[in-house]
Amino acid sequence: MKKTVKNLITWSPSHLITSQKSAFTLAEVLITLAIIGVVAAMTIPTLVADYQERSWGTAASVFERRLEEALKVMNTQQTLAGYSTTQEFVNELSKHFKILKTCDNNNLMDCFEDSIYWGGNGTFVDMKDKKTTKNFGINDWGTDLIGIQFANGTTALVGYNTLTSSNDPAVPVCRQDPYSNEITGMGCLAMIYDTNGFKTPNTFGKDLRSINVLELTDDYNFKTDDGTKWGIPFKVTEPATKADCIEMFGSEDYCGSENDYWVAALKICKSQGKNLPNRNQLISLLKKLFHTNNVNSLYIESSSGLELDYDLAQKFGFANRVGAQIYIIRSDPHYYNTQTELIWITENHAQEWNSDRGSSSFTKYYQAVCVE
Q1: Per the confidence metrics, is the pTM higher than 0.90?
Q2: What is the pLDDT of residues 203-218, one digit of tens each?
C-alpha cells in the first residue's frame, strides 16, 4: 500500500509586506559633522592651551629645582661666589648642571632667540642688543651676558652677580656659606630662560621665565633710521689739551688746538668703547629731528623752511629748553684729515642779566653724544 507523504507548508502573508529600512540623509550627516567641528573648534584649543600651560609650568619648576640643586652643591664646595665674569661662573656651573653649548657675548643669539615677547602685555623686544646685566635692569653688577643651551633643551641668557655685600637689602648679593644648606645661590645670577628652546611662542609667562631680571632695557638712548644707536648727550665742560690729543693719536699731525672740545668728547666716547658720529650718521640724525629726508648737508639754513622738532630734541637730550638754538658744527678743527669724525654740538644760548654791567649776555655750552 503506497503511503502518501504530504508536505505541509506553513503559509504566511508576511512575504507580501514590503521591508522598510531607516537611514541618515546626506544633509543630516553634514549638519552633524558641522556641529562636531564647531564644538571641537571651541574646546580643543582650550584643552591644548591648558596642556601647554601645565607643561611649561612643570618644565620651569623642574629646571629651577635642578638649578637650585647645582647651586647648593657649588655653595657646599665654596665655588659659588668670587668670580669676576659670567663666563667663569658658567664654567663652574657646567660641572654640576649639564650644558651642551655656551655662547660668548658676541654670539649670544646662537644660544637664544633674537626676539621675544616680554612683560604682562607681551611687548615685542629685540634681544640682539641685550649684552650686559644693565640690560636686565641691574646697573650694579656690571657683567656681560653669556648664552647657554642646557642638555634638557632649555636656552638661557645669564649674567653673574659680582656683589658679595650690599647696604641695600633689596639688592641681591652673591654669598656662600658652606655650612648652610639654605643658601641656593639664586642671588648670584640674573637669567632669562626658555623651557621651549627655540620653539615658539617665546612669550614671558609661558615658555619664557626669569630670575632677578628687573626689566629689559637698552644701552642706547634711541636709534635713527640708518640703524645708528645714539647714547645720551653729555656736556663737554673742559677742553682737551694738545698733549691729550697727541697721546690719543700718537702724533701731533691732527692736533692743532690747545683747547680742543672735540678731542675731549672723543676721549670720553673711546673710554666707553664707543665713538663719535660720522657725517652720514649726523645727517641721519638731522633727518629725524627735522622730519624730512631732504637733508644732504650738516648745515641747514633758516631759509630752508625746515623746522627743528624741539620736543623730540629735548626727549633725546639735545636741548634743555624749547627755543634753544641748536647747531650741527663740523668738528674738524685741524683740517688735516677729511675723515676726522664729526660731533654733535649744541650751543644753548641763554640770555642772562648781568647786574654789574647793567646788560644781558649769552652763555653757551657744548654737548656731544657717543654712538655704537
Answers
A1: no
A2: 998 999 999 998 898 8
| Residue 8 amino acid letter | L
Distance (Å, whole) CA 218 – CA 203 = 19
d(CA 282, CA 275): 13
Q: Which of 73, 95, 64 shows the shortest CA–CA distance to 189? A: 64
Of 211, 196, 219, nearest to 116 by C-alpha is 196
Parts of the chain with a pLDDT under 70:
1-22, 44-49, 51, 257, 298-304, 318-366
- Please report the DSSP string for 178-246 in residue order: TT-SS---GGGEEEEEETTTT-TT-BBTTTEEEES------SSSEE-TT-PEE---EE--SPBPHHHHH
CA distance 192 to 154: 10
Grid cell listed for 287: 633727518
- The residues that bridge with 118 in the sheet, in sequence order, are 123
In the chain, which residue ranges form alpha helices assigned H by DSSP?
A: 26-76, 86-93, 242-249, 261-271, 279-290, 310-316
Half-sphere exposure of 257 (CA within 13 A, CB side): 14
Tell the residue number behind the cell numbers 537611514, with chain if given: 23
- Residue 195, classified by CB atoms within 10 Å of its CB into exposed (0-12), middle (13-18) or buried (19+), is buried
